[in-house]
Amino acid sequence: MKIRKVLVSQPKPTTEKSPYFDLAEKYNLKLEFRPFIQVEGVSAKEFRQEKINILSHTGIIFTSRTAIDHFFRICGELRITVPDTMKYFCISEATAFYLQKYIVYRKRKIFYGDKKVDDMTKILLKHKTEKFLVPLSDIHKENIPGLLDQLKLKYTKAILYRTVASDLSDIKDLKEYDIVAFYTPSGIKSLFQNFPNFVQDTTIIAAFGPATAEAVEECGLRLDIKAPTSKCLSMTMAIEEFIKRYNRENKVK
Q1: How is residue 40 annotated by DSSP?
Q2: Which residues contact 150 (CB under 8 A, 6 or more apart)?
Q3: What's the longest Cα–Cα distance across the chain?
Q4: Nearest 5°: CA angle at 61, between 59 and 65?
Q5: Domain segments of the chain: what residues?
Q6: Which whole number is the average pLDDT over 11-40?
Q7: Does the pLDDT at position 1 exceed 80?
Q8: Residue 253 in this model has a pLDDT that exceeds 60
Q9: What CATH architecture is 40-163?
C-alpha cells in the first residue's frame, strides 16, 4: 500500500507557497483541504443574556482578528457606538493593524505586544486602572484571563462567537483518505459528530499540538503522527517523516 491521499482539516492555503503543496509534489500525493470546524457569532439576543454592558469598560483586549470582527458586529447589531476614548490592547501588531477595518487607527489609543504574555504583562500594568473587556470564543485559552487574574485587574469575559462542527455530509467515506490531519480538539469532536460510527482501522491520524493529540487518544483513536516535535516543528514535516519511514518499512518505491 502506498500513501496517496491526504485530508487536511483546515481551509485550503491562499498561497501556492504552502509547504503542503511542496509535500504533495514530492510524494505524488492528492491533497484535500476541508475545515472540520467553523466559527459562528452569538446572536444579539444571546449576548444580552450575558448581561454585559460594553460601554462600562474602558479597554478592549483582542487576541485575534476573529474577536475584532465579532466585537464590532455585536456593537453594530446592538447599535452601540464605541467612544473615541476606548483603549485597544492587542496580542500582536498584526492584530492591532486589523483594527483599521473598523476604526480610524491613528486617532485611537492602541497598544500591542509581540505575541508574548510577558509583553502583555508590561502593557497591562501600565494601564491597571482600566476596566477590560475580553471578547472570546466559547472554547478559548485561559492565558489572557489567567494573566488578568494574576495581575488582579478588573475584566469581563464576553463570549461573542463559538466553534461548531462543519457539515461534512458530502464526504461519503473517510476510508478513501490514507491520512487525516487534525489541528484542534474541536476537529476531533466534529469527526465523531459527522461520522459517529467511524472506525480508524488503517486510517493514519495526524495531530498538531498536545491538546489535539490528547483528544485523539481520549477518543480511543491511534495517534500515528504527532507534531510539533523537536525534530519536526510543523505538521508537514511530521507527515513527511512518517511517509519516509512508512515507505522504508513497506519498501514503497
Answers
A1: E
A2: none
A3: 66
A4: 130
A5: 5-36+168-250, 40-163
A6: 94
A7: no
A8: no
A9: 3-Layer(aba) Sandwich (3.40)
CA neighbor of 161 nearest in space, from 73, 49, 91, 60: 73
Give dist(CA 119, CA 114) in Å, integer. Answer: 6
Q: What count of Cα atoms within 13 Å lies in the side-chain half-sphere of residue 12?
A: 6
Cell (9 digits) for 192: 465523531
Query: CB–CB of 228/211 below 8 Å?
Result: no
Q: Judge contact between 196 and 221, C-beta under 8 A.
A: no
Dist. CA 204–CA 4, nearest whole Å: 12
Residue 8 near residue 34, CB atoms below 8 Å: yes
User: 3-class SS at 44?
Assistant: helix
Grouping H, G, I as helix, E, B as strand and the rest as coil, residue 131 is: strand
CB-based contact 81:72 (threshold 8 Å): no
**Cell 510524494 belongs to which residue?**
27
Q: How far apart are CA 19 and CA 30, in angstroms?
A: 14
Is residue 159 within 8 Å of 133, Cβ to Cβ? no
The pLDDT confidence band at residue 141, using thresholds 50, 70 and 90, is confident
- 84-94 confidence digits (pLDDT tens): 999 999 999 99
Instruction: Report the length, in residues, of the chain.
Output: 253
Cα–Cα distance measured from residue 50 to residue 163, given in angstroms and rounded to the nearest whole number: 18
Report which of 192, 230, 189 is spatially closest to residue 212, judged by C-alpha positions. Answer: 189
Three-state DSSP class for 200? coil
CATH value of 5-36+168-250 in 3.40.50.10090, 3.20.20.100, 1.20.1440.230, 3.20.20.80: 3.40.50.10090
